[in-house]
Amino acid sequence: MLKLLNNPTFDNERNVLNADLFVNNLKNTLKGFDFNLKVTYEVYRMTTVYHLSWNDDKTYDDVYELRKEIALSLGVNVEELELETVSDNEIKITVQNMKKYPLTLKELLSDFHKDEFLQIPLGLDEADNVICLDLDKDKNLLVTGVTGSGKTNLFNSLIMSLLINYDDVKIVILDSQGINYHQYDPVSEVVTTEELIIDRIRSLRRDFERQVKKGSKEKVVIFIDEIYELLKKDMSIKDDINYLLEVGSTTNMHLIISTDSVMDDDIYDLFKKNQISKLSLYLTSRGEYHMFLNEVVNDSLHKDGIYVSSDKKVSRLSLPLVSDDEIGRVTGYISKNREKI
C-alpha cells in the first residue's frame, strides 16, 4: 500500500552546502585563537553534527569560552548550540538545520521493518533512525500539545501506519470534536459525539473483562482525542480510563490519548500513575514540558516532537505529514479489498 502514499520531496543538498561553508568559518574563527583544529560532520534531516578535535594543549573549557564565536560561525544563536564532550581533545556540536523538509509517511514506512511485535513508527530521530511506539513494551501513549501543534496529524499518521502494516488490529477512534476522523469510517470504528464516546469508554472496560473471561488476545488500539474535554463532560470515566491504562494491555488493548492541557490535576494523574509513554508537541512554556516529560526542552520545538518511552529514553522526532488524499486512497483500497473477500 506504500504506492498509495505521497512521494517524498526531501533533498538535503542545501544543508550539505551550508555545512561546508560553516566548517570553513569555524576553522578560520578558531585558528585566530590558536586552535590546531580538525573538523568532520554528518548532515541529517533535522540536524548537522560537527566533530571538533585538536592535538594541542587546549581543553573543553577553552572551547566552551568561545561558544559565542562558534555559534556565529555556524549560523545559529548560542542558545541553540548543543555541546557534548567526546574525549579530552574532542567535542561534538549539534545544531538544527536551517532548511527542513516535511517528512512523508511513505519515507517513514519505507524505512520501517515490521517484526513480531506491535510497533507503530512515530518519526525519525536526529540521526534519521526510525523511532517506534512499541505497544508490547510501552503499553499506551499520551500525546500533548497546544491547539494547532499537530495532534490530529500525529493520530492520522499512527492510524494509517496501523492500517497499512497490521490487518489483524482493530482500531477504535473516539473523536470528541466529531470532524477529524470520518474518513476512517469504512475501515475502523469511529465514534463522534461526546455522549456516545463516554458510553463507549465504559463499554470498552466491559469488552476488556469479556476478553479476560474468554482468554481472547484480539489486538485493539483505541484513540481518544482531547481527553481533557471528555473529563470535563463526565469525570466518572476517569476510573474507566485508569483501569484500561493499568490492565488493558494484558489482553492487547492499548490506549493512545491526546490532550491540549497537562496542567490539570486529572490529566497529571493519568501520566504519573500509569505506565505510559509520552509524546509532546509544542507547548507554551518550559514548565509544561518539564512537568510532562521530566526533561528540559528547547522552546524552538516547532513541528517536531519529543518522545519519552516507558523506559525513559528521550528522542526528538521529525513527524510525518499526512494528507486527506492519502487517507482517502488507503481507506478506499482497504474497503474495496474487504468487500472482495
Keyphrases for this structure?
single chain; 341 residues; alpha/beta; Threonyl-tRNA Synthetase, Chain A, domain 2; Rossmann fold; 2 domains; eight-stranded mixed β-sheet; four-stranded antiparallel β-sheet; 12 helices; elongated
How would you sum up this structure in a few lines?
The chain is an alpha/beta fold and 341 residues long. It has helices at residues 13-31, 60-64, 67-73, 105-110, 135-138, 151-165, 194-214, 227-233, 237-247, 265-273, 286-293, 324-340, and strands at residues 37-43, 47-54, 82-87, 90-96, 103-104, 119-124, 130-134, 141-144, 169-175, 189-191, 219-225, 253-259, 277-280, 305-308, 314-317, 320-321. A hairpin with a 3-residue loop joins β1 and β2 (47-54).
Helix content: 25-40%
Q: Ranges with pLDDT <50 over ≥5 residues?
A: none
Describe the strand arrangement of the main beta sheet, using strand numbers.
Answer: 10-9-11-12-8-13-14-15
CATH superfamily of the largest domain: P-loop containing nucleotide triphosphate hydrolases
Integer tally of domains: 2
CATH topology of the largest domain: Rossmann fold
Q: What is the CATH architecture assignment of the largest domain?
A: 3-Layer(aba) Sandwich
Structural class: alpha/beta
The total count of helices amounts to 12
End-to-end C-alpha gap: 17 Å
> What sort of overall outline do the alpha carbons produce when their principal axes are compared?
elongated
Number of strands: 16
